[in-house]
């Protein structure tokens, strides 16, 4: 998958030491589940939540990525463990949630950071490619949300969900499949934020702009080079920017926030244009007098 095998984003050592505004006991005694927890954004969230006092359970498809993160967190004195989980399998998701409740006795926060897509012109999507993106980002997120909410309902105790999505306000060219999936997650989140409020469950989304992570290996060097220019700040963001947004929503600071989309994109939703597949000549208006 990696076009050039380049490494992007923050290391565990950087995440362990990054400055934060959050107190070390803001999530004391709590348990947080983070899907895609060993990826770029998920790993930053895992470090921040652990540093806020939470016990973190990270999931993903690759055992070795989870093992490396859990070892680094444990070595730094944090409580963490990892479980392999493909969020596309409802059966696996249900079994995972049963195991987590048995092992931890509680879960307070779920962050859905498992996700991704590949850049391609929509007209060329294959049925299998479309299904891969929809199953991962829409169905997978839903499996995790519903399984968590059912356990919270059965335990008579609430919790909160943070879904990592994509800025959908004016599309994102070259990844239309993911815009379809993420628009679904945003709509779903707003609806269940209302339906699940009586259960004490808050549901929010964080919409990142261009955040430098390993996930960027799926884009060409030429496409990546344009990302800093897709927002008025003229720079990309870091996974820590997204982690702190997730910290705000999970901690008591977010206690009165539900059904919200917190956009962290350097203003890209208001100005900027993103072509993940390269900008076609047709749209190069500056060359057309
Ligand atoms: C409006 C303001 C917006 C501001 C935004 C600013 C700029 C943002 C720029 C970047 C936007 C987003 C970035 C990110 O999200 S990066 C972080 C996320 N990480 C990734 O995306 C990692 C790579 N993606 C994945 O791993 C996906 O989850 C994926 C769905 C591809 C994985 O699923 P799966 O493991 O099932 O994938 P497979 O490899 O088995 O493939 C399944 C089928 O999918 C098709 N496919 C896959 N890759 C490609 C490709 N490169 N090109 C075409 N088709 C592809 C294909 O049909 C696969 O089946 P086959 O292999 O049998 O053909
Ligand atoms: N980085 C960016 O610029 C942006 C990112 N986002 C979104 O934020 C989220 C996190 O992205 P980021 O951390 O950058 O990307 P990464 O690719 O670094 O992380 C994504 C993680 O998701 C996991 N994952 C993918 N598919 C599955 C699956 N079916 N089941 C379980 N885990 C899965 C992967 O774990 P494993 O390899 O172990 O399967 C991977 O570690 C994604 O949804 C992404 O699309 C949104 C906008 C911009």
From TrEMBL:
Location(s) in or outside the cell: Peroxisome
GO biological process, one term: fatty acid biosynthetic process
Reaction equations catalysed: (2E)-octenoyl-CoA + NADPH + H(+) = octanoyl-CoA + NADP(+); (2E)-tetradecenoyl-CoA + NADPH + H(+) = tetradecanoyl-CoA + NADP(+); (2E)-hexenoyl-CoA + NADPH + H(+) = hexanoyl-CoA + NADP(+); a (2E)-enoyl-CoA + NADPH + H(+) = a 2,3-saturated acyl-CoA + NADP(+)
Family affiliation: Belongs to the short-chain dehydrogenases/reductases (SDR) family.
Molecular function GO labels: trans-2-enoyl-CoA reductase (NADPH) activity
Subunit record text: Interacts with PEX5, probably required to target it into peroxisomes.
Keyword entries, A-Z: Fatty acid biosynthesis, Fatty acid metabolism, Lipid biosynthesis, Lipid metabolism, NADP, Oxidoreductase, Peroxisome, Phosphoprotein, Plasmid
Enzyme Commission number: 1.3.1.38
Pfam families according to UniProt: adh_short_C2 (PF13561)
Name by which UniProt lists this protein: Peroxisomal trans-2-enoyl-CoA reductase
Organism this protein belongs to: Sulfitobacter alexandrii
Entries under PANTHER family matching the protein: PEROXISOMAL TRANS-2-ENOYL-COA REDUCTASE
Pathway: Lipid metabolism
Main localization (coarse): other
């Amino acid at each position: 998958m990696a076009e050039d095998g380049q490494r992007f984003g923050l290391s565990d050592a950087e995440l362990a030491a990054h400055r934060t505004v959050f107190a070390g006991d803001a999530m004391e005694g709590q348990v947080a589940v983070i899907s895609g927890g060993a990826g770029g954004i998920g790993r930053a969230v895992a470090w921040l939540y652990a540093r806020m006092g939470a016990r973190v359970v990270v999931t993903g498809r690759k055992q070795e990525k989870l093992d490396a993160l859990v070892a680094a967190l444990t070595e730094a004195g944090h409580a963490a463990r990892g479980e392999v989980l493909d969020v596309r399998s409802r059966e696996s998701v249900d079994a995972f949630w049963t195991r987590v409740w048995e092992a931890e006795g509680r879960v307070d926060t779920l962050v859905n950071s498992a996700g991704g897509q590949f850049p391609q012109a929509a007209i060329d999507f294959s049925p299998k490619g479309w299904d891969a993106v929809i199953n991962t980002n829409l169905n997978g997120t839903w499996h995790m949300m519903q399984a968590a909410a059912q356990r919270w309902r059965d335990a008579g105790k609430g919790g909160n969900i943070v879904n990592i999505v994509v800025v959908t306000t004016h599309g994102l060219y070259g990844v239309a499949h993911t815009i379809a999936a993420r628009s679904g997650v945003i709509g779903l989140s707003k609806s269940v934020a209302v339906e699940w409020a009586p259960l004490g469950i808050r549901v929010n989304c964080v919409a990142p702009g261009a955040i430098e992570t390993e996930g960027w290996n799926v884009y060409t060097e030429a496409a990546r080079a344009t990302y800093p220019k897709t927002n008025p700040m003229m720079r990309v963001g870091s996974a820590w920017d997204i982690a702190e947004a997730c910290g705000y929503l999970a901690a008591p600071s977010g206690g009165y926030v539900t059904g919200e989309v917190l956009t962290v994109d350097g203003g890209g939703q208001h100005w900027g244009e993103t072509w993940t597949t390269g900008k076609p000549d047709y749209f190069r208006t500056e060359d057309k007098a």
